[in-house]
Amino acid sequence: MTSENTDSDSTSTGGGTPDFKKIDKIVFRYSLDGLREDMKRLYEDEGQSYRNIKQYVNKRILETELERRGQDLLPGEVENYLRILKREDDDISRGQANDARERLKEMGINVGELEGNLVSHQTVGNYLKEELDVDVKQRGEANIENSRGTITGLVGRLQSVATREVEKLVENEFVNIGDFDVMVNVQVQCRDCGRLYSALDLLRNRKCDCYDTAPDLEEAESAQEAA
User: Fold this and answer.
1) Largest CA distance in the chain
2) Domain segments of the chain: what residues?
3) CB 127 within 8 A of CB 23
4) Which of 69, 100, 191, 201 has its CA 20 to 30 A from that of 145?
């Protein structure tokens, strides 16, 4: 599989056009009004990854190129061109990519310029953080909160099931016990030091005592996006 084009932080254009960050240049060149707002909404409101937003931006670019040349777009055609150009699947050959480039050239598209304008997920991530002021740390906090909710829900369901089962056994006189409560506690043990924590305490502190600090949420989120 081939790698994506490397994106620079800024791109100079001739003819008096001012220098822009790459996505700003794309918005200007393709008249993609609202693209910045769409990117922010996709990340903050819909929880989309950098990679999905990259796909969205690149799709808007190629759609504009084709529409400007009066091409009728079939469903999935733009996505397929992008998939082939980037050779995003292992089964896409160099020959298939070259054929796709030739078809685009026949439509009047400068393929080299087009490929230079396509963005990477790193460019998307940097733009979201540096230009659109999205709170990457907030996404990390949301991930922790989602995990807390999942664990709490599972504990609650297990507690309900266990309570019903014990009640049935008591009612049928298989077990003798007075009024009772079922207690469920999910624990996590660190294999390095042997310390034991409740799962919710570990999520609250975000580290075992054998670590000096908890992970930086912004760095962790960026690393996850880059994986």
Assistant:
1) 91
2) 10-130, 136-226
3) yes
4) 191
Identify the CA nearest to 107 among candidates 67, 80, 143: 67
Report the percentage of the chain scoring pLDDT > 70. 85
32 by Cβ neighbours in 10 Å (0-12 / 13-18 / 19+) ranks as middle
CA nearest neighbour of 202 among 184, 183, 187: 187
CA distance 28 to 39: 16
Round to the nearest angstrom and report the end-to-end CA distance of the chain. Answer: 16
Q: What is the pTM of this model?
A: 0.62
For the segment 123-139, what is each residue's pLDDT rounded down to a tens digit? 888 888 888 888 777 77
pLDDT at 174 over 80: yes
Cβ neighbors of 83 (< 8 A, separation 6 or more) are 89, 92
